[in-house]
Design goal:
The complex is a heterodimer. In chain A, 73% of the residues lie in helices and 4% in strands. Chain A is mainly alpha-helical. Chain A has a two-stranded antiparallel ribbon. The longest helix of chain A is centred in the first third of the chain and has 31 residues, at 2-32.
Chain lengths: 292, 234
């Protein structure tokens, strides 16, 4: 029971990172039907921004987090503008391959600029571990979970209540009708990239604090796992991405806890296959036929 | 108010609109009738800025708009009620209406526009918190019209508003189109239901294979034997 509780805490912390990342995948997919493979690398850039801003500008945690979100939002918008927008009317596979190209560009560009070696993330927050009912929980874990949940609630409010959020939903269900009421597609798509990338930037800073190690290729595996989380939750569904993220996080820690660390990635993909067989549209996905 | 001159629009490899000219005067109801595939919807999409014309011109209030982007056309006062309604599922009825007012900055008058729309369509007020996808076809048509009205248009483009509706709804929709027109909105109406459309129209154009074949007042076209044979079932 105690182990179970402990793993649940660890799983939720990791899962909230995946959830933040998965939101970006699902929102971008929802609006332009693109799987943005460069999304994991935005998270890497967020982590590096956190690293440099804390080390060189002596930012505190909050400032590092907020500035990373802002910087990543801008980077996301710039990537969309230069890489994806010119391909808006091309075949979907073209944009998809471009996304992989952008991913390689960011990974190798960063390796070239800052070096490929891993470096330790500055401890912006003194780690304190609390003991409670035999469970260990650190202030960093609480911070990650709290920040992630706060951001997810904030995102939900933006999407459900604000005019821009409603415009995002309108564009994702019917871009043509959205234009007919005067919604500017480009602005709405930029806004979506900004939101998703800001979430990824926040996740990057949080993972730096948690795992204490960052490198230019750190976005690859979490990026793919967050994508899996988005698919499991139902790609295009915002609550689905959050739930999917937590499922993946808990699953991964559970597999490690029973001593199968070597298979932790394999299990994630295995669950993906099972979910796709049972619920092809994901847990929260709507099973709608695509219009031709 | 709206002048379309020698307009050519390609739809993929097909020339869907071939040198079409027509005009709409302020305060009128003008209808374009014609069979499926006559190029009517393509024409409306070109006016709304969703499709680009290859040649010819579209002039609205003395400004050329054939190269203007869709949001700017809405801002200039042209709203389209698209064929097949295209309401936003997943958004509530009220959110759909709010999207219709997306470009409006005059918050003070907005409440009044909601009131106007709810007066035309009381059912929308009753269902305002419901997901728009749960509405019936007729109600969705009302919502699509209400959404277009929310932009407070000077010119309303209606694409097949009666398509797929029960007769009782069709009559109501046509009554409301007339009411909207009488309240000061110019209407360009595309219909396959030629009889109903010509009855309420000041003038009409008959489109076939992407070209204007005939034009005249609503009454003239209703009485025209060719029109009767081709579009009014003899």
């Amino acid at each position: 029971m105690q182990t179970f509780g402990q793993q649940l805490i660890n799983g939720l912390s990791l899962g909230s990172i995946y959830a933040l990342l998965a939101l970006g995948y699902t929102m971008v997919y929802g609006i332009i039907k693109l799987i943005n493979f460069a999304h994991g690398d935005i998270y890497m850039l967020g982590a590096f921004w956190g690293y440099y801003s804390i080390n060189y500008f002596h930012f505190n945690f909050i400032l590092a987090l907020l500035s990373a979100m802002l910087v990543c939002a801008v980077i996301g918008v710039v990537i969309e503008y230069f890489a994806y927008r010119p391909l808006r009317h091309s075949a979907r596979i073209t944009a998809l391959i471009t996304a992989i190209g952008v991913s390689f560009l960011l990974e190798n560009g960063m390796s070239y600029l800052v070096g490929a070696n891993a470096r330790s993330f500055p401890q912006a927050i003194q780690v304190v571990t609390y003991h409670w009912l035999g469970l260990r929980i650190s202030n960093v874990q609480i911070l990650i979970l709290g920040t992630a949940c706060l951001l997810m609630v904030l995102l939900e409010v933006i999407i459900k209540k604000t005019k821009m959020g409603k415009a995002m939903r309108a564009v994702s269900v019917d871009p043509e009708a959205a234009q007919l009421v005067g919604i500017n597609l480009n602005h709405t798509i930029s806004f979506t990239f900004a939101l998703g990338s800001a979430m990824a930037g926040a996740a990057g800073v949080l993972i730096g604090l948690y795992y204490n190690s960052i490198d230019p290729l750190m976005g690859m595996t979490p990026g793919i796992k967050a994508f899996v989380a988005a698919v499991i939750g139902g790609i295009g569904s915002v609550p689905g991405a959050s739930v999917g993220g937590f499922i993946i996080g808990i699953l991964e820690t559970a597999v490690q806890a029973v001593g199968l660390s070597a298979y932790k990635d394999a299990v994630v993909y295995f669950v993906l296959i099972v979910i796709l067989l049972v619920l092809p549209a994901g847990i929260f996905g709507k099973n709608v036929k695509e219009k031709v | 108010m709206l002048k379309v001159k020698d307009l050519v629009v390609n739809y993929g490899a097909i020339q869907a609109v071939k040198k079409v000219s027509f005009d709409v005067e302020q305060g009128e109801i003008v209808t374009l009738i014609g069979a499926n595939g006559a190029g009517k919807s393509t024409l409306l999409h070109a006016i709304s800025g969703l499709m680009r014309s290859t040649s010819g011109s579209i002039t609205y209030l003395d400004h050329p708009i054939q190269k203007t982007a869709a949001p700017k056309i809405v801002r200039a006062g042209i709203s389209q009620v698209p064929e097949g309604r295209h309401i936003f599922p997943g958004l509530s009825v009220q959110e759909n209406l709010q999207m219709g007012a997306f470009l409006r900055r005059d918050r003070a008058q907005l409440a009044q526009t909601y009131q106007t729309v709810y007066n035309y369509f009381p059912i929308l007020k009753k269902r305002r918190h419901q997901d728009a996808a749960t509405l019936s076809g007729g109600e969705q048509q009302m919502l699509a019209m209400g959404r277009a009205l929310m932009a407070h248009p000077k010119l309303m483009l209606l694409d097949e508003p009666s398509m797929g509706l029960a007769p009782i709804f069709i009559n109501e929709i046509f009554d409301i189109i007339q009411a909207i027109n009488q309240a000061g909105t110019t209407v360009l109406l595309i219909e396959q239901n030629a009889k109903q459309a010509l009855k309420i129209a000041d003038r009409g154009y008959v489109l076939a294979s992407g070209q204007v074949k005939l034009s005249g007042t609503g009454a003239e076209l209703l009485a025209n034997p060719d029109v009767q044979k081709a579009y009014l079932g003899g």
